[in-house]
Amino acid sequence: MELTDNFLQEEYHLVMASTGKRLANYLIDMLVFYAFIFLLFMMLAVVNPYVMALFDDESPGFKYLDRLLGLVLYGLFMGLVEGLFKGRSLGKLITGTRAVNNDGTEISFATGFKRGLSRMVPFEVFSAFGNPCHPWHDKWTQTEVVVLKESVLPENN
Fold first, then answer.
1. How many other CB atoms are there within 10 angstroms of residue 41's CB atom?
2. End-to-end Cα separation, the chain, in angstroms
3. Does residue 114 contact residue 141 with C-beta atoms inside 8 Å?
4. Can you give the pLDDT at residue 156?
5. Which residues contact residue 73 at a Cβ distance below 8 angstroms, ignoring those fewer than 6 apart?
6. What's phi and psi for 4, nearest 5 deg?
7. What is the phi/psi pair of residue 87, to 5°?
8. What is the pLDDT, as a whole number, of residue 105?
């Protein structure tokens, strides 16, 4: 921080996470999500065994509905995780990264939840391809995923 003209000027430096770290975050978070869904449906099956019969339909239309349900559940799951943990997920914790606002400040619950909801858009995952990696859920919420050890964040983080 510098003191200039009687105002405290915060300096920050953001180092964006590489495509490889972003991919690792995604894979780890998907594994966690699938484990969560597996446990959730196991508990539902114990409470009411007939619940699982709802998912036995082999019709082509049901398979699309199944994919849509998966997208919605993944979006809600990631929204809650990133919202509650201020831009962190298990994948980000393991890789040493965090989602922050473009100015380096901590994201709010609402922003974290919006990041998750953005993931519900079909084919959104493909928007992460490229170098630098800047997927739609970052663009739409004005956020970035940064490497914590290499970044200097504003004081409120």
1. 13
2. 14
3. yes
4. 61
5. 33, 37
6. -130, 130
7. 90, 10
8. 92
Contacts 24+ apart (CB under 8 A), 30-35: 30/74, 32/89, 32/90, 32/91, 33/73, 33/74, 33/77, 33/78
d(CA 38, CA 4): 56
Q: What's the pLDDT at 157?
A: 56
State pLDDT tens for residues 16-70: 999 899 999 999 999 999 999 999 988 988 888 777 666 666 666 667 777 888 8
CB 17 within 8 A of CB 26: no
Helix (H, G, I), strand (E, B) or coil at 57: coil
Cα–Cα distance between 51 and 73 in angstroms, integer?
17
Q: Identity (one letter) of the amino acid at 30?
A: M
Q: How far apart are CA 19 and CA 76, in angstroms?
A: 23
Q: What is the phi-psi region of residue 86: left when phi exceeds 0, alpha when psi lies from -120 to 50, beta otherwise?
A: left
10 phi-psi bin (left φ>0, alpha ψ -120 to 50, beta other): beta
State the helix-helix crossing angle for 60-84 and 19-47, rounded to 10 degrees: 110
State mean pLDDT over 99-116: 93
